[in-house]
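Lecture 7 notes. Example A: sequence first, then its structure tokens.
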Amino acid sequence: MASPNPTDITLHAASRVLEIRFDDGAVFKLPFEFLRVYSPSAEVRGHGPGQETLQVGKREVTITRLDPVGYYAVQPVFSDGHASGIFSWSYLYELGQDQERLWAEYLAQLEAAGASRDADDPRNAALVKAAPSCGH
């Protein structure tokens, strides 16, 4: 069975939410922060299991631009400069379906690391400096 395809994508700048409607009737409202911390990029996900980098201080992040990638994805440009994540329709659908669980997991990871969603929180400094880079 083919993955659902979007019929409408709307960026809500004031509420910092990407609303996406799919042809199977599903509608997901994905906060920009959620999309940023779950970016499929190597910078966030690494190049294999265990190489993920916990994203901290992303509460106020916005999407400044949303570029189409062929007929299968979009590539957001985030206000913190992150622009390497390509979000396929199937990945956006998965994020929408699993949003509640994934968000709870993210908050638990932040708490375990002693980190914060706030960019100006001094607890984040050590994590940001220690984050590995994929060279991009």
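Example B, a different protein, same format:
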Amino acid sequence: MKLQITAKKMQVPQAFNEYAEKKLKKLDRFFGDEADAKLTMSTLKDDITIELTVKYESLIFRAEQRSADKNDALDACVDKIIRQIRKNKTKVEKRLKSGAFEVQESEEIEEQSQYNVIKRKSFRLRPMSVDEAILQMNMLDHNFFMFKNGDTGEVNVVYKRDDGNYAILEPSKD
């Protein structure tokens, strides 16, 4: 697994680099050498936030944790990703075989406008089913996910409602 560590407004000690590499070896049994892991560290007051994103083929796994100790936060992130993999094991295996998950994110562009838009993100939409979109949204730990509906060919947005159910936004036919 290729690891990239980025720190915002702080220095990364060499001991933490070694600890992170050792800790991410746990994920090698799931991904192997082809995976890319990006670990971002930032500090807010006395807490350290660790964000771990693992990209493997067309799947993206993400976990974020805040703690006073960076090692504890990293441990929690790795555990979250392992739980995501186990929870979605059969679904992910099916998707890998069918190749339906091919979302490639492009670079993020920061921008400000009249409505204070601070970030713009673009990515390639691949056809997928609603179930696949919900699975991808849950693996990214997001509240919504935009995708191209494989049945209709239209761009849809799936989102998680406050009651725990899911809803879909789709364009009107008129």
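Note on Example B: The longest helix spans residues 70-87. The mean pLDDT is 80.
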